[in-house]
Each structure stands twice: as C-alpha cells, then as structure tokens.
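REQUEST ID: PR-0412
SUBMITTED BY: lab tech R.K.
PRIORITY: routine
TASK: structure prediction, single protein chain
INPUT:
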Amino acid sequence: MYKFEHNISIFVFILILPFILSSDGDRSPFYQNCVKSCSKANCTLEGAFQEDSAKVQDKWNRLLNWSCNDECRYQCMWRAVQAFQERGYQVPKFHGKWPFKRILGVQEPASAFASLLNLITHMYMYSKLQEISVRSTPHVLFWHAFAVVCMNAWIWSIIFHTRDTAFTEFMDYACALSMVMSLFIAAVVRILYRRKKLAAILLFLTLAYYVEHARYLYSGRIDYDYNMRVNIFFGAAGSLLWLGWAWRARRARRYAWRLAASTLLSGAALSLELLDFPPRRGCDAHALWHFSTAPLPLLFYRFVIDDVKYSMPSLSIKKST
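STATUS: complete
OUTPUT:
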C-alpha cells in the first residue's frame, strides 16, 4: 500500500513540476558570450585563476572563495544589466536572483544582515523557552526541536546570502522549507494532540513530502516559482490552522492574541516577497521580507511559553542566572 501511494505521489509530483532552469539575464547571448570571453582570458581550463588575474582579485572575495568563473559571472552580470538598461529593458534576474553589489565579498549584504537579525531573535526567545523545566513539562521538548529547526534555517540563510553556491542554495531552500513545515506540523500537533493517530498520519505524510522535495532541490534543477508555491502552500495551511485555533481559544486563553498577531503579521510580511521587485538602495523585496520577520518570534515564542504554562500550571521555572 505504501509503495503504491509513494509511486502515485511521485507521478503527481512529476506532472506538476515545470522546469525553469534559468532567468532572462543568464539566458541572454550577451551574458553568455561575455562569460565565455572572460573565462577564456582569465581562467585556466580547470577554472582556476591565471597568474595575472589572481593578483587583482579582492582579498574579501578570495577569502569567501570566489572562483575565477564566479568572478566572470559577476562582472558579466553587471555588463549585461547595463546593456539591458541601455536598450530600455528592465533589470533582469540571473540564475533566479536579482543582481546585487557585493560588500566585503558578501553577495547579498542586506538579506544576509536581515537573516542574522532573525537568528538573533530566535536565539533570544529560545533562551527564554529554556527556562521551562523539561522534567515537569516533557512536551516542551517539541518546541525545543522547533526552535532548533528555525535557528538552523536562519544560519543557512546567512550563509547562502553571503555566498551563493549550489550547496548553500540547496541548504537554504531545504532548511527554509523545514521551518515553514515545522510551523505547519506544530499547528497539527497542537490541534490534534488528543487524536494521536490522525496527527501521526498527517505528520508522516508531511515529512514524506519534505524528503521528496528536498531530493528534488538537491538535483540542482530548481524551478524557483514552484519551490515558492510549495512554501506558500504549507505556510498558508499552517497559518489557517493557527488562526482557527486562536479564534476558538480566544476566551479561554487570552494569550492567543499573540499567536493571531504573529500569524497575520507573517502573512502581511510575505506580501513583500511576492512583490519581487528589483533591488533599490541595496534592498530587494526578499531582503525587506527578512527584515520585517525579525521581530515576529518575540510574539510567537511568547505565545508558546504562555501556552505551555497554561497547560501545566504547576510547572517549575528555572531561575535565571
């Protein structure tokens, strides 16, 4: 039975999977010819710098392991942007991303800094969560796992926006989806905690789909729009579940407003990502989205802590040192 369902899921997955392997910028003949000429003039056949080219590379770019081919793609990207603008065309994307000016070798400075702010917020609230005794409240371990998943996702977001490689892209996308799905799973577990079998089935199906999607991301043949739709689907599903629970619990649990507020604000912040406009003064919609989500864990974890306390009134709180 499992094999049949597994094969059906793969079949459906293939049917709805359109492959978009490039963007307008890197598809353009101008960009492709520029990269070929640059690589021929500056790089060896193995992709390393020729002796003269290595001497002029910035030390920060060298520290972050920008290869000769990477440098050619970066320089040709901006030449292509200029060519597009001179012809009256809009600024294009390259390999699914908007062009950004590097700072100290960091590929997307604004998004990297915004991701760091999100990580700091999660770490701060996780320290508050750790004040609850696990012995008296074993189920708080679920929220520990949730926090670790979120912090891991933001670490890889920092790394990816600092230096975009095939591996860091995979880790960023896979870990970002793990955070979105964790929020969905948390809603399922919280709502269906008394119906363990149904919760277990939904949990298994969600994890199975995550593994399948992670395998797809690892292939490197990423349809960025499809990946975004997957994140939006699970994000919206989790948000609807949480809002429904918060509405039903609003009288018995007055702290539920924090959950509703963080969920609604997360949805509002997502609109920045969906706008997807080119960078303006170093910030694109993606960076602004990350900046806007940084304060939201303060609300959500406060809800989690209050909900745990409500469920276990007699729990013991570790004294802060």
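NOTES: The mean pLDDT is 85.
REVIEWED BY: pending
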